[in-house]
Amino acid sequence: MKPTEQNRKAMQARWNIAQANKRSVAHTASHYLLPADSQDEFNNHLAAFLETFDPRGHVEQLLVHQMATLQWQILRAGAMQEALLGLEADNCAKNITSTYKSLDRPAVWAIAYRSLEDNTPAHHRLDLHINRLNRQYTRTYSNFTDMRARRFEDNCSETPTPGVSPVIPITSKPESEIDNAASRTKEHR
């Protein structure tokens, strides 16, 4: 086999991997969508993250996709928690009206919250889930910003050229003051 044929096959293999990676990035969060979730809303959510963070390179793109997916899950878990509390408030409201003459909505929510905490672990588990997702988001964001900072440092860390003197800053003094200072220096010598 000729070396050029080996190179062509290696290039083709790398191209196939790149195409598979491109497809996996495009569908990173599709398995996180529930039937009630809107693919269009998620795509808009993801587009906003991509626009905000402007990822450079494959790894940054993966991190931004992960952050968007985690944030989507956090929002959904919060909505589930809110719905769970709302359902419990509706159930409690039926029983409360027979016990109490009148209660404002915050009191009904408080009773519903207490009922959830006493009777089911669902609300507590959602809290734990949201906290875990928030920690994952924070770590992913930190990884993204660290990577971006390292790239920025790499781009900005230019080594000085040997034998070239540093640039002397231009002063904002009027020329007359500079001329006077130069003449005084000559007089001292």
Describe this structure in words.
- The structure is a single chain.
- This protein is mostly helical.
- The chain has a domain at 58-155.
- Helices cover 77% and strands 0% of the residues.
- The chain has six helices and no strands.
- Helix 3 (58-99) crosses helix 4 (105-119).
- It is elongated.
- Mean pLDDT is 77; it is low at 22-28 and 164-169.
What would the keywords be for this entry?
189 residues, mainly alpha, elongated
Outline of this structure?
With 189 residues, the protein is mostly helical. It has helices spanning 3-26, 39-53, 58-99, 105-119, 122-156, 175-188.
Question: Could you give the topology of this structure?
Answer:
Layout: H1 3-26, H2 39-53, H3 58-99, H4 105-119, H5 122-156, H6 175-188
Q: Give the overall shape.
A: elongated
The percentage of residues in β strands lies in: under 5%
As an assembly, this protein is single chain
- Overall pLDDT metric: 77
Tally of individual helices: 6
Rg is 31 Å
Strand-and-helix sequence, N→C? HHHHHH
Q: How many β-strand stretches?
A: 0
Which structural class do you get from the secondary structure elements? mainly alpha
Helix content: over 70%
Q: Could you list the spans in which at least 5 consecutive residues all have pLDDT below 50?
A: 22-28, 164-169
Major sheet summary line: none
Between the first and last Cα atoms, what is the distance in angstroms? Answer: 81 Å
